[in-house]
Amino acid sequence: MFLMEHRREHRVPTEQPVILTVLGDPEKRLTATVKNASGRGLGLIASESVPSGAAVKIEFGDSIFLGEAMYWKAMEGGYYVGIELTEVLSGLAALSRMAEAFNDQLEPAAARRR
After folding, report:
1. Distance (Å, rounded) from C-alpha 55 to C-alpha 86?
2. Which segments of the chain are extended strands (E)?
3. For the domain 12-113, what is the CATH code?
4. What is the overall mean pLDDT for the chain?
5. How far apart are CA 33 and CA 4, in angstroms?
6. What pLDDT sits at residue 99?
7. Whether the predicted pLDDT of 81 surpasses 70
8. Is omega for the bond preceding 26 within 30 degrees of 0, making it cis?
9. What is the pLDDT of residues 6-19, one digit of tens each?
10. Cα R_g (the chain), whole angstroms
């Protein structure tokens, strides 16, 4: 039987450990592994199920991915979670260094005004 793939974008297989945070009150922080990625989403294996519709944050290196859990299914070794990405913040280490440098420049000017 021939099955037609209906995805809008090609998925790239990977094996990348990440930190998955289910946003809410309280937040739930989980270990996870990204199994495949596309420009619009991620498929990952998480240590616990993530409710469909939950807002999530995925941390990898100096990048943060924000998105929504679209579905999940139990499988051997954890739960497969499909994430639709809404925002990607990368280069955060460089941004932090720039903010520190900017702050260092402001502090002497503020001290002179006192």
Report:
1. 10
2. 12-22, 28-37, 41-46, 55-60, 63-75, 78-89
3. 2.40.10.220
4. 85
5. 27
6. 77
7. yes
8. yes
9. 456 677 778 899 99
10. 19
